[in-house]
Amino acid sequence: MTVAQFRSPAMASPPAYPELLALARNPSPDSRERLLLGVVALCDARPPTGELSPVLGEIFLTLARQAERDVRKILAERLAQADWAPPALINVLALDEIEIARPVLAASPILQDDDLLRVLVEATLEHQIEVARRPHIGGRVADAIIERGEPATLTALAFNRTAEISVDGVRRLVEQSRRVAALRGPLIRHPRLTAQLAEQMYEWVGEALRQSICARFPVDGRRLAAVVHRAVNDARQAAMSPPPPPDDPDRDEMERRLVAKLQAAGQLRAGYLIRAVRERRLGLFVHALATLGGFSVAGVREAMSAASPEPLFYACASVGVDRAVFPALLVEIRLLNNGSPGDAGERVWLRGTISTASAARSFRALIKS
């Protein structure tokens, strides 16, 4: 029996026990793979009434780890909706390369919230997007996606109408839509968006989406237009106003301790940098960036006042701030920091993706503090 036969949905019947026994006695890699797919086909035909025995589950896992890529892909497709599949095997497949993991992440009833949270932490961006797209993901998973602040994953979550997103989660997504334009369209059509949140979005969306807000919610377009006009004027005044006074030593120490506490609890992430700037707390941003990147506070402050935004970009990129997010973050930092860092040099964030390790090296090469 060939791999192609196992792939075919028109296969007349599962392999017979004698054939599986013969494959089990044959130690060749080809026989291992055929045995694995044969057992899956047999279970498909006669699904177990309960969980597989630990011994059979271990056999599945051992055979799968020895299988070639194409066989693992077929295995993931076959087990994607099987409620009898061994949990250990499903978790291995969920962390495999994305073409293998995708069907399992999308549909496997075996994967629980803790399994999906592990994927968010350990797997690639493509895996994280598939988790965000998964139907009926729980509130813990949705909150974790929002906390990470990755634009592509946030957008996938916003399109997922079945995800259990809390009222606060929707509010945080709306706030993220200030910087992530791709979130705006799906959020305006999202069933959990409230009129109050829609009015907030009115300030920063384009004309077409403003019309969609007015069509969906009973809002006064002329009143909202006046709000937008005032917001624009306020932003201009803020840009022209003198910088805020420097933080006093007591406040600086308080923020250092807060960041240290978050780091010790495992809660300090790149998304916290964006939140600190949104809350107009540059001192908190400086301490958080220094701690996340393993930089000196003096070095981060030097980057904040540099003639070019290049050092600050490398520092942010080294801790996981997406290059697509950085331009909007830079605008807000300049508003709070008297226009610094300056605009000299090229926009290095337009060059393409850079690894966190390379970004850290580039920052340290530019900043000697």
Q: Topology of this protein?
A:
Blueprint: H1 3-7, H2 17-24, H3 29-45, H4 54-66, H5 69-79, H6 87-94, H7 98-107, H8 113-122, H9 125-133, H10 139-148, H11 151-159, H12 167-176, H13 184-188, H14 195-201, H15 207-216, H16 221-240, H17 249-264, H18 270-278, H19 282-293, H20 297-304, H21 310-318, H22 326-336, H23 356-366
Helix pairs in contact: 3-4, 3-5, 4-6, 5-7, 7-9, 8-10, 9-11, 17-19, 18-19, 19-20, 21-23
Helix and strand succession?
HHHHHHHHHHHHHHHHHHHHHHH
Indicate the radius of gyration in whole angstroms: 26 Å
Helix content percent band? 55-70%
Number of helices: 23
| Overall strand count | 0
Spans of at least 5 consecutive residues whose pLDDT stays below 50 are: 1-17, 239-246
Helix/strand class: mainly alpha
First-residue to last-residue Cα separation: 66 Å
Largest sheet, strands/sense/barrel: none
Strand content: under 5%
What is the overall pLDDT average?
81
Broad shape? globular
Note down, in words, how this protein is organized:
- It is a single chain.
- With 369 residues, the protein is mainly α.
- The chain is 64% helix and 0% strand.
- α5 (69-79) packs parallel to α7, α9 packs parallel to α11 and α18 packs antiparallel against α19.
- It has helices at 3-7, 17-24, 29-45, 54-66, 69-79, 87-94, 98-107, 113-122, 125-133, 139-148, 151-159, 167-176, 184-188, 195-201, 207-216, 221-240, 249-264, 270-278, 282-293, 297-304, 310-318, 326-336, 356-366.
- The chain contains 23 helices and no strands.
